[in-house]
Write a structure and sequence with these properties.
Chain lengths: 247, 247
Amino acid sequence: MKVGVFDSGIGGLTVVKSLLEHQLFEEIIYFGDTARVPYGSKDKNTIIRYAIEAVEFFKNFELDMIIVACNSVSAYALTEMKESTICPIIGVVEAGVLATSNSIKNKDANILVIGTHATINSKAYEIGLNRLNFQNIQTKATPLFVPLVEEEIINGSILDATLQHYFHDITHPDALILACTHFPLLSSALQNYFGEQTTLIHSGDAIVEYLENNFLFIKQYKNPKLQFFSSENPEALRKIAQKWLYE
Amino acid sequence: MKVGVFDSGIGGLTVVKSLLEHQLFEEIIYFGDTARVPYGSKDKNTIIRYAIEAVEFFKNFELDMIIVACNSVSAYALTEMKESTICPIIGVVEAGVLATSNSIKNKDANILVIGTHATINSKAYEIGLNRLNFQNIQTKATPLFVPLVEEEIINGSILDATLQHYFHDITHPDALILACTHFPLLSSALQNYFGEQTTLIHSGDAIVEYLENNFLFIKQYKNPKLQFFSSENPEALRKIAQKWLYE
């Protein structure tokens, strides 16, 4: 099995990390659109245009599947991506909604979704969760978490002030959906802020769960082959991948 | 006089504001590359490629001058831009260096330059200031200020923690060069942090000073015509322009 993983930049590496931990693919082709990152503050039509270009890029490889490891793309462009290829495409939004439903049995549970402006404005998670009969959903765009992660500020006073800024009037949730692939790097800070009773839903783990539940033919492979591509400076991407995936 | 003003996104509007206050042009064509913003975290070659595309865009208009209102572009791509058009091009880096020299007479003065990673890594301000015999220069990449301004966080505890994070070990400067066109929106916070003895150098005012000193034929025009273009969602850009320029 050969998979393409697409993200606007580096965030999707957290999904690759989950794939590697579970050894689900023989070969992983990662593409990060680092020359045009971030997507989360951009317009729906721009996101769709860039996503279709990513599908074209992946046509250079004979892929068995494409994983969209970017919540903003999954929220806005999955239909258009599917229309432009016959390769199966799965996205983190659908996987995240199903993972939430699998781990939270009480339909009255309080669920908080955090992500970029684009993801939150799309209401994609709310629509999916509503379909599965969850009604008690709060959403909050937390765009500052992205540059904080990119600047490696994952604890300390700036992050504390930012958590307080975003969440001071939020009811502590039963489940917190990390609807941006940067946010797993803030897992311990978020868990600490909300307390142990809050279940964190992580896009990478959700994708693994989705694959294991829906693609029963999936085998395990030791030492999958990894290739990294980006729309600028692939060397910089590879360095971050080395750090995020193996350190 | 008809001028094109180029920025990676919305930051260059602070330069437009200075131009409007001084009524230096009959017509201003603003282009923000909002579909690919920000440039400040991107690679030199990417910035050059995008900058040349902006010059091509401006060839649609009969311009008398192009002002590069983005420090990252001015630092990396001004030569390449000049090679691709006969239209005069001026950038905020050169203007900022000259404005500093005009207002700070003591060559031993302590000068602090703050900007994006790209601008600071370019060393463009240091090179320019060294040529004018300033030797006592500190630089600091302060990339988090950009999303803070875009999220309209221009005071309060997150900004206080961020100021402390970046400047806790910095000697208070005689001059502070705001080498990113977002930063004028943090002027009062920065002035407050460093105290009244620190002179702030603002890219927009520096451009006005540069024009008045070097283009003696420049006249004043009442009610200049303004046109806004962007690579995505021009309506969103126009709304921000309305807010930043007139409120």
